[in-house]
């Protein structure tokens, strides 16, 4: 219970910072990861390796999302740190919630920025429209939103499922 309260506080702080600056500080994610590992080593002892495995595999899975520029590095680090509070199969639930809710938020964000037609045309001309859809009209800057909101919400849903 203590770890859930601490993780909730860290995720809330990450959301506030991400909304204001569009960055997630490395010390925040690293501190959350260290606190999770220490807490689990005290409470479950040798079982801490299951939590470490969850975190390491999550890093590899979501690093791919960073490489293809769907997530920022700070988002991947925060997801990795938050995943340290779960073992499998709860980690799978966390992943699917992040991906599902993230897609939904992304589509809503694109519709808000570009209009419904940009999303509808994606099904007709996916390769030509995809690049235009993920960049804004002004100076081809990427469309983005503070993804830590999705991470925090997904984490909270996962602990209650």
TrEMBL record:
<dbReference type="Pfam" id="PF01478">
    <property type="entry name" value="Peptidase_A24"/>
</dbReference>
<feature type="transmembrane region" description="Helical">
    <location>
        <begin position="142"/>
        <end position="160"/>
    </location>
</feature>
<keyword id="KW-1133">Transmembrane helix</keyword>
<dbReference type="GO" id="GO:0016020">
    <property type="term" value="C:membrane"/>
</dbReference>
<dbReference type="InterPro" id="IPR000045">
    <property type="entry name" value="Prepilin_IV_endopep_pep"/>
</dbReference>
<dbReference type="GO" id="GO:0004190">
    <property type="term" value="F:aspartic-type endopeptidase activity"/>
</dbReference>
<feature type="transmembrane region" description="Helical">
    <location>
        <begin position="92"/>
        <end position="111"/>
    </location>
</feature>
<feature type="transmembrane region" description="Helical">
    <location>
        <begin position="56"/>
        <end position="72"/>
    </location>
</feature>
<feature type="transmembrane region" description="Helical">
    <location>
        <begin position="28"/>
        <end position="49"/>
    </location>
</feature>
<protein>
    <submittedName>
        <fullName>Type IV leader peptidase family protein</fullName>
    </submittedName>
</protein>
<keyword id="KW-0812">Transmembrane</keyword>
<keyword id="KW-0472">Membrane</keyword>
<feature type="domain" description="Prepilin type IV endopeptidase peptidase">
    <location>
        <begin position="5"/>
        <end position="106"/>
    </location>
</feature>
